[in-house]
Every structure is written in structure tokens, then in C-alpha cells.
From TrEMBL:
Source organism, top-level taxon: Bacteria
Keyword Transcription: yes
Protein name: AraC family transcriptional regulator
Record keywords, A-Z: DNA-binding, Transcription, Transcription regulation
SMART domains registered for this protein in UniProt: HTH_ARAC (SM00342)
Coiled coil: none
Entry-linked Pfam families: HTH_18
Signal peptide: none
Domain HTH araC/xylS-type: 187-269
Length: 269
């Protein structure tokens, strides 16, 4: 099966300009689509009733509900589904994952993105979560429900989230240290613990997630800093000390570089 040339590929955008997360019941008018890409977001399609085929980058898969279809932002896809179609469509932009105060959401999104199709033994649990998500407006509740949705969808997969913590890859071992130990603002500290060089650690991270070791550590540090600023009464100086920055000024410059805000400004949001 041929994939259309780049000039022929339509790019769909189902998002409002400022939205980072969206869920809606499947639109029955879109049961048959032509090849297209998405405008910078991950699409998860949870189907409870239909049949047909789904094609991603030229690879065709039979659709047998209940199932979850996963379309990454760079992929070209289309489907032919038989009416009636029942289910939900979830759209997730990268900043939603990056700005989440729950570090497990990033891991779960990374894990679900390994797949293009996940057959489900039952759709009842995900159906209930989808209904709750469509009516929820509280950002923290949305994160919690979405986390539960992903964890349940991945429950029966061989590469489950539990195995991410026990994997023997250098990147996974690095992530395990970041999860289990107090964060230290120095890649060399973790390279020494893993008995490798900073260069090797960065290569492993780059191969796994496309980020250097410093960038992976920076994401964790910023997430942890946001949690401490949001959930605790620690001063900015105390947060800087907790994250092993040399002083408050150094921490503030680091935080602003990655967020565009000073720690004090973030706390006032």
C-alpha cells in the first residue's frame, strides 16, 4: 500500500488554540477517513463497538473492539469503520505531559506510544473513566483519571509500566535512580552510580527518548521543583537547597530557563 507524498497529506487539527488535552465521544460522521496527519498531538481512540480496518504508515490492522488505537503526531493514518461506531477520542499535546506534576504520566505516555493497537479484554473500566473525563474540568482530576486510563489500557501488555522500573537498559536504570533517590543537579553523579561515563549515559537516553541525560534530568528537576513550589510551604531558597543547587539565584535562573517563569511567579499562578 502506497503512502501519499508529503504534499498530499492533509494535516488535521481538532484542538482549540490553548487546549492541551481533549476527550470527546467518537464522531460517527468520521467512520471513514482519508490519509492524514495530526497537528502536533497524540491521538488515542478507544473503541467499544464497530469493526473494520485501521492503516498507519501503510500497515493495516483489523479493528476488533474493545481496543485502543494509538496514533502518534508524525504518523499518517486512516480507517474504515462499520457503523454504528461507539467509543471515545482522546487528544494529548506534549506540553500536557511535560507540565504534569505526576511523573508517571510521562512514563505511561511513553509506554503506550510503543504501540499502534492494543486489544482489550474488557472495555467497561475504560468506558467509565472516559465518561468521567468528558465531564471533568479540574486539571488535577483530569491527570489522575488519564493516568488510570493509561495504566488500565497497558495492564495486559508485556511491556507494562511495572517492567519499566525493572528493565536492565541504561536509560531505564537512570530513570529508576531519578525515581528512587533524592534528585541531584549533576549528571556525573548518576553516571558514577551507574558505572558509566556521562557520554554513554547521554547516548543511551538519546536512543531511548531523543533527549540527552542533562535534558532528562532537567525535566525531572523542573517537575520536582514545581511540586515543591505548588504543594509545600518551602521558600525558594529551601527548594533550591533540596534539589542541590548551589544557591537560590542559580536555581531561579535554571527554573526560568525551562519554564519562562521565576519560581516566585510560578507559585502565584
Amino acid at each position: 500500500m502506497e503512502i501519499p507524498t508529503q504534499k498530499e497529506i492533509r494535516i488535521n487539527d481538532k484542538f482549540d488554540s490553548k487546549a492541551l488535552f481533549k476527550i470527546a465521544p467518537f464522531d460517527p460522521r468520521k467512520s471513514v477517513t482519508s490519509p492524514h496527519k495530526h497537528n502536533g498531538y497524540l491521538e488515542l481512540v478507544f473503541l467499544t463497538a464497530t469493526s473494520g480496518t485501521h492503516v498507519i504508515d501503510g500497515r493495516e490492522t483489523a479493528v476488533v473492539p474493545p481496543c485502543l488505537l494509538i496514533i502518534k503526531k508524525e504518523q499518517v493514518h486512516h480507517w474504515t469503520l462499520t457503523a454504528p461506531v461507539s467509543g471515545y477520542v482522546i487528544l494529548v499535546k506534549k506540553p500536557f505531559v511535560e507540565e504534569s506534576l505526576d511523573r508517571d504520566i510521562r512514563k505511561l505516555v511513553e509506554e503506550v506510544s510503543r504501540y499502534s493497537h492494543i486489544p482489550l479484554p474488557s472495555g467497561e473500566y475504560l468506558q467509565a473513566l472516559s465518561v468521567l473525563l468528558t465531564h471533568e474540568e479540574n486539571p488535577l482530576c483530569i491527570e489522575g483519571l488519564f493516568k488510570a486510563f493509561l495504566a488500565k489500557a497497558l495492564e495486559k501488555k508485556s511491556h507494562s509500566i511495572k517492567q519499566l522500573h525493572t528493565s536492565h537498559t541504561l536509560y531505564a536504570q537512570f530513570c529508576a535512580l531519578l525515581d528512587e533517590q533524592q534528585l541531584v543537579n549533576h549528571v556525573g553523579h548518576y553516571a558514577q552510580l551507574l558505572h558509566t561515563s556521562q557520554q554513554n549515559l547521554s547516548i543511551a537516553c538519546k536512543k531511548s527518548v531523543g533527549l540527552t541525560a542533562s535534558e532528562v534530568l532537567a525535566e525531572r528537576l523542573i517537575h520536582e521543583a514545581k511540586r515543591l513550589l505548588y504543594y509545600t510551604h518551602k521558600t525558594v531558597a529551601e527548594v533550591a537547597q533540596a534539589l542541590h543547587f548551589s544557591d537560590e539565584s542559580n536555581f531561579s535562573k535554571y527554573f526560568k530557563r525551562y519554564t519562562g517563569l521565576t519560581p516566585s511567579a510560578f507559585r502565584k499562578l
